[in-house]
Write the structure tokens for this entry.
Amino acid sequence: MKIKTRDRDDIAILDISGEITIGQGDVQLRKEINELVNNKEIVNIILNLSKVSFIDSSGIGEIVRSYTTVQKHGGKLKLMGLESKVRDLLTITQLITVFECFEGEEEAVASYK
Amino acid sequence: MNSNRSNEKPKTKRDNFSVELNIPSEMEMIRLVEELGTALMDLRGYTERDRDNIRLAIHETLVNAITHGSKSRKPMRVTVRFAFEEQCFYTDIEDEGEGFDLDTVKDPTHPQNLLEPTGRGIFLAQKLTENFTVTRLPGKGFRVSFCRFKPRKNEEIGND
């Protein structure tokens, strides 16, 4: 898994590609989120999942953990670019009711204003 | 690995074609098993969505078997069996660990559990497959079994 982090309008956008699975992507995502929240007072984060090819329950759990971590620091974590297989898993686990999900970046960024 | 394509009359329909792997209970082995399972489904023309769902079910069941098995000090083995019936792809995964009781698996969709970072693996495997069962093997460990029926032609349209 690869994560590229960029800033846009004071929002950290994490472009994630590859597989988010146990012992690999999940650890990397946790590290990246912790670095972001520890370096800023309030941090808003968008996870761009459009290039995620496979995600397991540990990966889903790490997104949940990221969501609660960001929330504890006074920010909001949102998702964008969900492929149908990722969306299906969020629907089955009912996490689709928890996360704010957007098709594209403009829409996701605008939602913070 | 055993591959059985004999012309003998099968004892059951599940003997039509089967592949069995006996692997060390190690996380590094998971990818290999997933790839074999999905490659076998390719041979029978399953849809991409079916392959993705079974890949995840295999993955979650193996993670569960291996992480529980790792609690023991002795080296454990996991046996994986893939079998085809005419319209169904079966997976059996047997471990030597202490297993789990399906009835005690928490519902991760319950409002109290929704923001828990763990506890979705077996739930997902169960939801993405058919006939998901857990069987205690006396003196041996546990077997998790599930299958995927091949959709009929009219069901395949719109499945992807």
